[in-house]
């Protein structure tokens, strides 16, 4: 099992990973930022948390909600994710949030999961903790992507609650929860649930996705050279180097290759042979 880097994650976007909406800064060195949506439910107060609006230092409006002291809030992410059966995703806490009084997170995204994530945030402090909506500079968690040694046959589907889209099973039947359930079940929000094809298309059409892919391409072209003939020269040079190394290995390997044991230990003929004695006459029928 190995952890995907920044370049690995971008390379897999559109293939083994779908992630939407992507924002500038969503992809970190070796993980993806998960931000809060406006859907948050207090388990103590048994009701959705109120969304407020404030202005930042630049005069821009931003939304937030407060998790009451000593309360646990179920918070749905503003991003939806799909992982193929070659990946899993452990979810890690954000140190900044933990320093304010949020408990550590210990959960994961299973292979073949599709949809938004429901993360339980525990405020173990004696004061409210502010959570900003959709802010990559203040994420609620980080999603690392791990490549499995072999493809998962997805046995978790036997336990249907593990794959309930959006994990709405943890809120159904609770007081004042129907508004959140209805929001996610609306047809236009199918990409937030299990409509992975729609999720993929939204990601592919997004400006942020195209810019991420372009940035990786530009870095490669920058390495190869901006002038087209120079690129082909660079590719040819790399191919020549690889070919040269292969040729050298082809010459070296036979030197260290063990010799055939038949050459080191000549076969000895153990068959008994009768030699003629020119000084002795052997009579017919004699065995001497």
Can you characterise this structure?
The protein is of the alpha+beta class. 28% of the residues lie in helices and 24% in strands. It contains seven helices and 14 strands. It has helices at 6-12, 95-100, 178-185, 196-205, 207-224, 228-256, 261-264; strands at 2-3, 17-20, 32-34, 36-42, 47-48, 52-55, 61-67, 71-83, 87-92, 107-109, 114-123, 129-132, 141-143, 146-147. The strands form three sheets. Strands 1, 3, 9, 10, 13 and 14 form a six-stranded antiparallel beta sheet that branches. Strand 4 and strand 5 (47-48) form a beta hairpin. The radius of gyration is 33 Å and the shape is elongated. The termini are far apart. The model is unreliable at 270-276 (pLDDT under 50).
What tags apply to this protein structure?
alpha+beta; elongated; five-stranded antiparallel sheet; 288 residues; 14 strands; six-stranded antiparallel sheet
Lay out the secondary structure.
Layout: E1 2-3, H1 6-12, E2 17-20, E3 32-34, E4 36-42, E5 47-48, E6 52-55, E7 61-67, E8 71-83, E9 87-92, H2 95-100, E10 107-109, E11 114-123, E12 129-132, E13 141-143, E14 146-147, H3 178-185, H4 196-205, H5 207-224, H6 228-256, H7 261-264
């Amino acid at each position: 099992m190995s952890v995907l880097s920044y370049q690995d994650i971008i390379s897999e976007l559109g293939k083994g990973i779908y992630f939407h909406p992507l924002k500038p800064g969503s992809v970190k060195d070796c993980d993806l930022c998960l931000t809060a949506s406006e859907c948050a439910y207090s388990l103590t107060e048994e009701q959705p948390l109120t969304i407020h609006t404030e202005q930042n230092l630049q005069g821009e409006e931003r939304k937030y909600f407060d998790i009451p002291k000593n309360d646990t809030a179920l918070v749905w992410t503003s991003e939806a994710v799909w992982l193929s059966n070659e990946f899993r995703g452990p979810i890690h806490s954000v140190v900044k949030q933990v320093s304010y009084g949020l408990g550590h997170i210990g959960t994961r995204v299973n292979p073949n999961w599709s949809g938004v994530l429901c993360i339980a945030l525990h405020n173990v402090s004696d004061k409210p903790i502010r959570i900003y909506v959709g802010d990559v500079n203040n994420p609620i968690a980080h999603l690392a992507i791990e490549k499995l040694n072999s493809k998962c046959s997805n046995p978790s589907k036997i336990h249907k609650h593990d794959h309930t889209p959006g994990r709405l099973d943890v809120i159904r039947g609770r007081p004042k929860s129907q508004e959140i359930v209805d929001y996610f079940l609306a047809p236009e929000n199918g990409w937030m649930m299990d409509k992975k094809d729609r999720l993929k298309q939204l990601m592919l059409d997004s400006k942020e996705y195209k810019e991420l892919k372009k940035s990786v391409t530009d870095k490669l072209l920058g390495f190869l050279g901006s002038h087209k003939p120079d690129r082909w020269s660079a590719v040819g040079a790399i191919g020549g180097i690889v070919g040269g190394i292969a040729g050298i290995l082809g010459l070296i390997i036979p030197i260290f290759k063990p010799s055939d044991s038949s050459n080191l230990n000549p076969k000895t003929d153990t068959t008994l042979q009768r030699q003629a004695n020119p000084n002795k006459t052997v009579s017919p029928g004699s065995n001497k």
